[in-house]
Amino acid sequence: MTTTDSSACPYHNAVTDPATINAITGFRDVEEIFRSPVMAPFLHDGTEDFRGGTVRQIDGPEHRARRRVMGRLLRGQGDRRFRSEVLMPTVERNLQLALQAPGDDGVPRSDMVLFARVAFFQLAAALIGLDGVDTLEDAEQLRQAADPIQEAMRSWYMAGDRGPVMARGIEARDEFRLRYFEPAIARRVELVKAATTPEAEAALPNDLLTLMARELDPAWTGDEGLQLREAVTDFINAGTFSSSFTLVHALDECLTWRERHPDGAGRLLDGNFLAKAVSEALRLHPIVPLFYRTATEPVTLTSGRKLSAGEHVALDIGAANRDRDVFGPDADVFVPGRTLPTGVTPYGVAFGAGRHMCYGMPVVVGGDGVNGSHVQTLKALFSAGVRRDRDRPAVRNDRLGRMNGLWDSYPIEFAPSGQGA
Amino acid sequence: MSLHRVPLGADLPTGGLRGLVVAGRALCVVRTDDGSLFALDDECSHEAESLSEGQLLGCEIECPWHFGRFDVTTGEAVALPAMEPVRTYRVSADGEDLLIDVPEAQTPP
């Protein structure tokens, strides 16, 4: 298993020697471990300053209760509301800005990495409850402010000394706290205090900071450090990073598919086909390559594999999602609508599985699997005639070792007349 | 048919849901907006969480943990991450009581 090089960096060897952690690569084993009540999350990468105590790291009744509280944001098909009221208006605004400002050659252009990240930062701000993030420019400023934080949280995958990156990330988080977090939560505390009737309480904002101001989770109450970590880890980091890069991958795969199936280009305007394409892209390109678990007691998996109490394992999502025993001999190939065994989701374990399944899955996929953020965004882009920029190739980000599904830029252009697909 | 009488009617308003145990089974009973009654296993097929702690959306019940949804009329899973159906049971009103057809739990030999 490849990790960062050994160094004197205080964060690198903060935890168990990675060489002693067995990688689990079979889909059935990975899924079973995700679902097992005795396999607990394990923070392997020395980022307690960012992730400690957050919903992804806790387990048991505490996790169940936290998840239930956070579920208030998306319950009642809340994913639809956030998409329709925040995400898609941002996507549409971004798209119109690009289409209305073509280059000298009459071709509108944009960059898919920036396009996606700004949209998901706007969404993250709404989910968290950050005030003053109303325009694309505001979302871009938030993205720039959060960049060092996200780099620090991914630094385990980097080579060399993580120390300066982690220090800058903590500094950036303090800046985020002062500029965005504290004003927003202070305002919500006042709103909650003033909401003395059921009607007023029902009218409170539906966002993370309001849940915290309402003191609905005892661990959050009075622990501003945990509140900040929860907002940053789950929404700023997970909610923008994986979301945006999986969208770029989905576009990339669809564009390649179109080159190979020129007669099928019209299908890229069909939501049902795009849903299958998005699921395949998610399956093939999980942004977070590894999830870590610890056996809290001896475990024998259905496959016969035994884990001893205290044993750490690394769940290799990429390998599991290309398991030929499950996905067929062409598991490495992008095949929208591939036949799957009963009970296997078309995106595999890209969102994890079980009780710790990615909180944002309904936003990305949609409850019906068709109307999630990625399908809707791709539909808008293909309707505007999106294609790769013929003059500027995409630039991969190769600085993060095994986290190799990233781009620094992915230039795109649109058909001058806005013709679809 | 194993009908069980449950004195619940007044405690199950229109658009509401309740969890209860009948013949050893945890059930979720639902009264939809048109007053129709339905009963299903009170366990989400995704992660074995209690559906009666969720929300009724029309004729669908939403699990509050991961937002899987089920059609209360058929038990069919209608929203990811739920993929497997949940069992349903016949239920009717008899005055203020409910009559729910729940097979007695089989005792292992």
Automatic annotation (TrEMBL), chain A:
InterPro entries: Cyt_P450 (IPR001128), Cyt_P450_sf (IPR036396). Coiled coil: none annotated. Pfam families: p450. Belongs to the cytochrome P450 family. This is Cytochrome P450.
From TrEMBL, chain B:
InterPro entries: Rieske_2Fe-2S (IPR017941), Rieske_2Fe-2S_sf (IPR036922). Keywords: 2Fe-2S, Iron, Iron-sulfur, Metal-binding. CDD domains: Rieske_RO_ferredoxin (cd03528). It comes from the Bacteria. The keyword Zinc does not apply. Residues 4-100 form the Rieske domain. Its cofactor is [2Fe-2S] cluster. Belongs to the bacterial ring-hydroxylating dioxygenase ferredoxin component family. This is Non-heme iron oxygenase ferredoxin subunit.
